[in-house]
């Protein structure tokens, strides 16, 4: 059977436009199942360490459970991502999954210090010969295609030359994270969509490009596709805080739901989404899914936890010995709290989405005030603070002290407007 390439391969996947990014310990099977239920067309696994995957059966069982990860009925299309710096080891690892996924991806974007110490991810950017060998050995020897996820350089021409090298090595899809290696943590800043557009305009038309970065709201998807000319949009943090980010494509003019049903679809209540995730967690095997649950509980409930710090404390207690019944207790507690909140007529009136009159940037994007009992975007703090309405305030989710009942009421009535910050 001839291995598909380029756009033919992309079309064989169903021409996906809404893609869940490879995230360390966060795009595991349970989360992928939730994401697919809410509109994701294509999912990537978490970044897997090629050497450990090739050498350790325990590591493989923990991170890629045969018969479940990559299941043809429930978990496809799927791309398995590896980080690596040894072509032979990478091929050995990839061979172990080539019958359980649609492609293997090389991580060339991880900017963390652990990647620097291990010499992988974005810290291979200076070693183009090695990158070529890593991609090409998979291209030549696998039955399935190889793809790559890169970060940009500050210089356009260098970025274009880099992208051409990656493609010439055999990558069939190029995912471009529109940030440099230095843009991480509190220096993250905005992803450069114009750089992605530059690549789109200067690479062969048959090149398949996924754009990554700046996806906070549903309408960012269509805007990103229009501005970058990319074939698909990949979301990472945006999907972790609102897994319904891909539920429905809307434009800015359509972005304020005018019906209760649409609000529930775009910005689900935290209790509803937590229950859905818990049911997946309960029925999905694999250590990776269970170990990721604590982090997912925190992110799904992020706007809710600064107010109900008792729930936050229960999640903080989760460890390897936590039972599925403990997760259900937390889920039930959140359900009871939200049910009580919405039994109040005043809160029912506030269960709506309010647009800010002030654009966040030149695109016309505006911040939405969303009730804390609904999932919503995360605006990354800078120096421990978030920019609200032009003024910096402490990130409420980072506060350790508990909120008193009076403070709960104040938070209900406060509209905070972040501007010009990216997830």
UniProtKB/TrEMBL annotation:
Pfam families: Dus. SUPFAM superfamilies: FMN-linked oxidoreductases. Belongs to the Dus family. Dus1 subfamily. It comes from Myxozyma melibiosi. This is tRNA-dihydrouridine(16/17) synthase [NAD(P)(+)]. It catalyses: 5,6-dihydrouridine(16) in tRNA + NADP(+) = uridine(16) in tRNA + NADPH + H(+); a 5,6-dihydrouridine in mRNA + NAD(+) = a uridine in mRNA + NADH + H(+); a 5,6-dihydrouridine in mRNA + NADP(+) = a uridine in mRNA + NADPH + H(+); 5,6-dihydrouridine(17) in tRNA + NADP(+) = uridine(17) in tRNA + NADPH + H(+). Residues 388-413 are annotated as: Disordered. Its cofactor is FMN. Keywords: Flavoprotein, FMN, mRNA processing, NAD, NADP, Oxidoreductase, tRNA processing. Its EC number is 1.3.1.88. The keyword NADP applies. InterPro entries: Aldolase_TIM, DUS-like_FMN-bd, tRNA_hU_synthase_CS. It is an enzyme of class 1 (oxidoreductase). Residues 20-321 form the DUS-like FMN-binding domain.
């Amino acid at each position: 059977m001839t291995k598909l390439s380029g756009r033919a391969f992309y079309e064989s996947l169903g021409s996906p436009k809404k893609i869940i990014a490879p995230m360390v310990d966060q795009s595991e099977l349970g989360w992928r199942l939730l994401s697919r239920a809410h509109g994701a067309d294509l999912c990537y696994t978490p970044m897997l360490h090629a050497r450990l995957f090739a050498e350790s059966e325990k590591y493989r069982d923990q991170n890629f459970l045969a018969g479940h990860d990559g299941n043809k009925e429930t978990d496809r299309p799927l791309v398995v991502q590896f980080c690596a710096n040894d072509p032979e080891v990478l091929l050995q690892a990839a061979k172990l999954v080539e019958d359980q996924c649609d492609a293997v991806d090389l991580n060339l974007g991880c900017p963390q210090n652990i990647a620097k110490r291990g010499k992988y991810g974005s810290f291979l950017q200076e070693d183009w010969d090695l990158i070529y060998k890593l991609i090409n050995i998979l291209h030549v020897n696998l039955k399935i295609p190889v793809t790559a996820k890169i970060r940009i350089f500050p210089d356009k021409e260098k970025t274009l030359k880099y992208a051409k090298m990656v493609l010439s090595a055999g990558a069939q899809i190029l995912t471009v994270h529109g940030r440099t290696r230095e843009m991480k943590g509190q220096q993250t800043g905005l992803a450069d969509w114009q750089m992605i557009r530059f690549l789109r305009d200067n690479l062969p038309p048959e090149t398949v490009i996924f754009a990554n970065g700046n996806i906070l709201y549903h309408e960012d998807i269509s805007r990103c596709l229009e501005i970058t000319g990319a074939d698909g949009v990949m979301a990472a943090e945006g999907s972790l805080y609102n897994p319904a980010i891909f539920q429905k494509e809307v434009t800015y003019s359509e972005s304020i739901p005018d019906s209760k049903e649409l609000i529930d679809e775009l910005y689900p209540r935290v209790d509803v989404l937590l229950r859905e995730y818990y049911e997946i967690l309960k029925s999905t095997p694999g250590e990776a899914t269970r170990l990721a649950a604590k982090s997912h509980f925190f992110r799904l409930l992020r706007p809710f936890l600064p107010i109900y710090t008792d729930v936050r404390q229960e999640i903080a207690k989760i460890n390897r010995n936590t039972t599925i019944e403990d997760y259900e207790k937390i889920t039930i507690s959140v359900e009871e709290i939200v049910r009580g909140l919405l039994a109040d007529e005043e809160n029912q009136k506030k269960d709506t989405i309010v647009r800010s009159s002030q654009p966040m940037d030149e695109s016309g994007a505006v911040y939405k005030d969303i009730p804390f009992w609904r999932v919503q975007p995360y605006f990354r703090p800078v120096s421990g603070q978030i920019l609200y309405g032009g003024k910096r305030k402490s990130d409420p989710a980072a506060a350790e002290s508990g909120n008193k009942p009076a403070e709960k009421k104040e938070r209900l009535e406060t509209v905070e407007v972040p501007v010009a910050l990216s997830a």
